[in-house]
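BUG: 3D viewer hangs when loading the predicted structure for this chain

Environment: internal workstation, default settings.
Expected: structure renders.
Actual: progress bar stalls at 90%.

Input used:
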Amino acid sequence: MKEYSLSGTKRAEAGKKAAKQLRAQGLIPCNLIGKDGAQSFTVKLTDLRNLLYTSQVYAVNLSIDGVECKAILKEAQFGPINEEVLHLDFLKFNADEPISVAIPVKLEGFAEGVKAGGKLVKQVRSLTVKGLYTQIPERLIVDVTPIGIGKTLNVASLKYENLEILNAPSVIVAGVKATRASRQNN
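Structure tokens produced before the viewer hung:
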């Protein structure tokens, strides 16, 4: 998992009015949630662009007024009209404890069903995994080579070293659908 450094400052006031004033100054209100409670802080909007607008999942090296900790971005709230960043929630973790995080799925290989004229369909964009942050990959690579026409690949058939997939075993990751061309060939 890639790492991202972010610095912030503690927030004194809470509430809608204070949050609105902060956003007008280019600061985003945030919460850091951990076993020791929650902490409110702010970060600059310009520092967040590479963290928010990407499909990558980062372990964030967070520095709040000089106090360092590791966290992951758990939730980002955006405005309904202009999609401005309204609020962020970070989850604090220890490096030696497993964390749960959604990781993007990447399909690799040339499915047997596609060779026969079918169409490969990706059913999920990401899967939730649990493991030490140092062992969580940037993306989960799924080999689709053995999938035939009308067949699917589900979570139960996926195995990754040092990772536990938290999605239900019956969740379909990818499948090959029959097309008109494949039906005519049979």
